[in-house]
Every structure is written in C-alpha cells, then in structure tokens.
C-alpha cells in the first residue's frame, strides 16, 4: 500500500516539474483537477493472514515451485542435501559458535511455539481496540454528516412551505387596511353628522325662541289690553254662567 | 528462443533461462533505479508478511535469516583459515 503511494508520488513529481515551466496564469488556466478515476477508494481492507511460510523461514511459493518436478518431499530433500554438502565440504565450518547458535535457535523455537499464540492474541486485542476507536470516530462523523444532511433537507422542505407565512402576512395586512379604512369612514360619517346636527339644533333653537318670544309678546299685549272694567264684567258673566250650569247639572241626574 | 512478448522488460519468473544475462543487463542501474529496487523489495516483504491483520513469526524471522546468511558468506573465508 505504501509502495503504491510512493510510486504515485514519484509519478506525480515529473508532471509538477513540467508544470512549473509554464507561467502562473497559464498554469491556472490549463491545469485540470480530479480527472482520473479515484483508485483505492474505499481503501481495500488489510489481508487477514500473511504469506504462508514453512519452518518459519521459507515461503510456501518455493515449495509450490518445486512441487511439479519433485513432489512433496523435494524441498526437504534439497535442504537436507545442501546441509550435508556444506558440512562435508567444510563450506560451513563447525565452530564453538555453532553450538551456541543451535542452543539459541532451539530456545527461540521453543519460546515461539509455546507463547506465540498468546502474544498474537494480545497483539490482536490491541489492534482491535485501535480499530474500534477509529470505527467509532468514523461512525460519529458519519452520524454528524447524516444529521447535517437531514437538517439541510428539513430546511429545504421548510423553504417550500414559506408561502403559507407570506399568505398569512398578506391577509393580516389586508385586514389592517380594511380596518383602517372603515375607521376613517366611520369618523367621516360622525363628523358630517355632527355638523348637520349642529345646523338642525340651531334651526330648532331659533324656531323655539321665536315661538316663545311671540307668545310672550302676545300675552303681554293681551294682559295690557284688559282694562279694569272689562275685568269686572267678565268675572260677573262667568259667575252667572256657572250658576246656570249648576242648575242644569242638578236637573240632569234627577232624570 | 525469443519470447513472444517483444519487450524484454518482464518479471523475473517469466524470463527464460537463456535470456537471463540480457535481462540482467537491461535492468535500471542508475542510483534512482537501485534505490527503487530496494524500495520495491522492502515494500513487497512488508506488505506480504508484516502489514497483515494476523501476522506470524515469518515477518520477524526472515530478517535475521536474511542477515545471517550473507554475513556468514562474507566471513567464511577467515573462519576457514582458523
């Protein structure tokens, strides 16, 4: 994986070098970004096990390479033969170091065989914790972005419903205008009626005053015109009429 | 004897035995090429035996073995003298 990154960086270096020869303006005009297909996206997972080896050292491919010609035991026979050849021809010299090497290698093999699995499990547990942390971080980021997307969609949906708000506002304004118009109309009516009532009451008052004045004037003149003598005659006639009426009234109920 | 593919830049396992010298001579021997070869070798070993989920003893044990064998070859002359 890292080798591929390094190789791609090495391949990008000459293109950057060539681009530097152009002027800055030309660079911005002609450089096109993101043209290739994104490779390694998503990143492929790590392989589960490494390449198989036998005896902890020799890769399996060597055994498969020799299998068609020599069968299963070929590489082992080759190894044994090589060891005996090196020993017999003294290409490999037996020194005191040989024995220490054999003891150390034997100890290492024993340790690996006995504790290898435990160490592997411990390392796997550490790895899994790390991966769990990263996975949790990734899930959190995904969740945050999902929430942001949902919020965005919600706001877009709200934008679609904005016209309700505008309708209500328009209705309110229309009603306020109507109310103001009617208030002013009523005010105009009241003012006009006030003026007309004023004129009517002025007229009524004039008529009443004239009537009263005339009555007073007539009364005064009549009272003035009644002299003392006329008053005595009038009272005597009234008394005589009353006596006549009393006699008639007494006569009526008898019948 | 000539292979079907005209360009002789093939992988080592595909090269036939007779073409081996010409193939070796054709490799890139500039410093950049040699560094690239070391890089390739290192990352091939790393990605195959170390950078896995459940590594084994192979990733660790191959390194001392690859160190011991050449160093023995270099010092076997003076071991023979003693």
UniProtKB/TrEMBL annotation, chain A:
User: Which Gene3D superfamilies does this one have?
Assistant: 1.20.5.2210
Tell me the leader sequence span: none
Q: Which InterPro entries match?
A: ATP_synth_Bsub_B/MI25, ATP_synth_F0_suB
List locations, semicolon-separated. Answer: Mitochondrion; Mitochondrion inner membrane
Alphabetical list of Pfam families matching this protein: Mt_ATP-synt_B
Molecular function as annotated in GO = proton-transporting ATP synthase activity, rotational mechanism
- Keyword set for this entry? Acetylation, CF(0), Hydrogen ion transport, Ion transport, Membrane, Mitochondrion, Mitochondrion inner membrane, Transit peptide, Transport
Q: Which GO terms describe its cellular component?
A: mitochondrial inner membrane; proton-transporting ATP synthase complex
Q: What assembly does the database describe for this protein?
A: Component of the ATP synthase complex composed at least of ATP5F1A/subunit alpha, ATP5F1B/subunit beta, ATP5MC1/subunit c (homooctomer), MT-ATP6/subunit a, MT-ATP8/subunit 8, ATP5ME/subunit e, ATP5MF/subunit f, ATP5MG/subunit g, ATP5MK/subunit k, ATP5MJ/subunit j, ATP5F1C/subunit gamma, ATP5F1D/subunit delta, ATP5F1E/subunit epsilon, ATP5PF/subunit F6, ATP5PB/subunit b, ATP5PD/subunit d, ATP5PO/subunit OSCP. F-type ATPases have 2 components, CF(1) - the catalytic core - and CF(0) - the membrane proton channel. CF(1) and CF(0) have multiple subunits.
Entry function: Subunit b, of the mitochondrial membrane ATP synthase complex (F(1)F(0) ATP synthase or Complex V) that produces ATP from ADP in the presence of a proton gradient across the membrane which is generated by electron transport complexes of the respiratory chain. ATP synthase complex consist of a soluble F(1) head domain - the catalytic core - and a membrane F(1) domain - the membrane proton channel. These two domains are linked by a central stalk rotating inside the F(1) region and a stationary peripheral stalk.
Q: Which PANTHER family match?
A: ATP SYNTHASE F(0) COMPLEX SUBUNIT B1, MITOCHONDRIAL, MITOCHONDRIAL ATP SYNTHASE B CHAIN
Q: Which family does it belong to?
A: Belongs to the eukaryotic ATPase B chain family.
> What is the protein name stated in its UniProt record?
ATP synthase subunit b
UniProtKB/TrEMBL annotation, chain B:
- What keywords tag this UniProt record? Acetylation, ATP synthesis, CF(0), Hydrogen ion transport, Ion transport, Membrane, Mitochondrion, Mitochondrion inner membrane, Phosphoprotein, Transmembrane, Transmembrane helix, Transport
Q: Name one GO biological process term.
A: proton motive force-driven mitochondrial ATP synthesis
Q: Which domain of life is it from?
A: Eukaryota
Does the keyword Membrane feature in the UniProt annotation? yes
GO CC term (a single one):
mitochondrial inner membrane
Q: Which GO terms describe its molecular function?
A: proton-transporting ATP synthase activity, rotational mechanism
Membrane topology annotation: Single-pass membrane protein
Q: What is its main location?
A: mitochondrion
Question: Where does it live in the cell?
Answer: Mitochondrion inner membrane
**Entry's Pfam families?**
WRW (PF10206)
Subunit info? Answer: Component of the ATP synthase complex composed at least of ATP5F1A/subunit alpha, ATP5F1B/subunit beta, ATP5MC1/subunit c (homooctomer), MT-ATP6/subunit a, MT-ATP8/subunit 8, ATP5ME/subunit e, ATP5MF/subunit f, ATP5MG/subunit g, ATP5MK/subunit k, ATP5MJ/subunit j, ATP5F1C/subunit gamma, ATP5F1D/subunit delta, ATP5F1E/subunit epsilon, ATP5PF/subunit F6, ATP5PB/subunit b, ATP5PD/subunit d, ATP5PO/subunit OSCP.
Role noted for this protein? Subunit f, of the mitochondrial membrane ATP synthase complex (F(1)F(0) ATP synthase or Complex V) that produces ATP from ADP in the presence of a proton gradient across the membrane which is generated by electron transport complexes of the respiratory chain. ATP synthase complex consist of a soluble F(1) head domain - the catalytic core - and a membrane F(1) domain - the membrane proton channel. These two domains are linked by a central stalk rotating inside the F(1) region and a stationary peripheral stalk.
Family the UniProt entry places it in: Belongs to the ATPase F chain family.
Q: What is this protein called?
A: ATP synthase F(0) complex subunit f, mitochondrial
Q: Which organism is it from?
A: Tupaia chinensis (Chinese tree shrew)
């Amino acid at each position: 994986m890292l080798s591929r990154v390094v190789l791609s960086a090495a391949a990008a270096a000459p293109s950057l070098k060539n681009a530097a020869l152009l002027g800055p303006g030309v660079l911005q005009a002609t450089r096109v970004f993101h043209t290739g297909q994104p490779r390694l996206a998503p990143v492929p997972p790590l392989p589960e096990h490494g390449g198989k080896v036998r005896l902890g050292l020799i890769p399996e491919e060597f055994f498969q390479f020799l299998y068609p010609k020599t069968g299963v035991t070929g590489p082992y026979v080759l190894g044994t033969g090589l060891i005996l050849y090196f020993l017999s021809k003294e290409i490999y010299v037996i020194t005191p170091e040989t024995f220490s090497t054999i003891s150390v290698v034997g100890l290492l093999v024993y340790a690996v065989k006995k504790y290898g699995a435990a160490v592997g499990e411990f390392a796997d547990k550490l790895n899994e914790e790390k991966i769990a942390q990263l996975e949790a971080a990734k899930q959190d980021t995904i969740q945050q972005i999902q929430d942001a997307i949902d919020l965005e969609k919600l706001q877009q949906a709200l934008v679609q419903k904005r016209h309700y708000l505008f309708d209500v506002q328009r209705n309110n304004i229309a009603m306020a205008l109507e109310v103001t118009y009617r208030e002013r109309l009523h005010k105009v009516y009241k003012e006009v009626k006030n003026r007309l009532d004023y004129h009517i009451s002025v007229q009524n008052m004039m008529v009443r005053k004239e009537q009263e004045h005339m009555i007073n004037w007539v009364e005064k003149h009549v009272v003035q015109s009644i002299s003392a003598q006329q008053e005595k005659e009038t009272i005597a006639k009234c008394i005589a009429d009353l006596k006549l009426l009393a006699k008639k009234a007494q006569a009526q109920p008898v019948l | 004897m000539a292979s079907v593919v005209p360009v002789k830049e093939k992988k080592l396992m595909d090269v036939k035995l007779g073409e081996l010298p010409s193939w070796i001579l054709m490799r890139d021997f500039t410093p950049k090429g040699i560094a690239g070869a070391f890089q390739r070798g290192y990352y091939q070993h790393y990605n195959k035996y170390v950078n896995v989920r459940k590594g084994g003893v192979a990733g660790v044990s191959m390194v001392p073995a690859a160190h011991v064998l050449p160093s023995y070859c270099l010092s076997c002359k003076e071991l023979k003298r003693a």
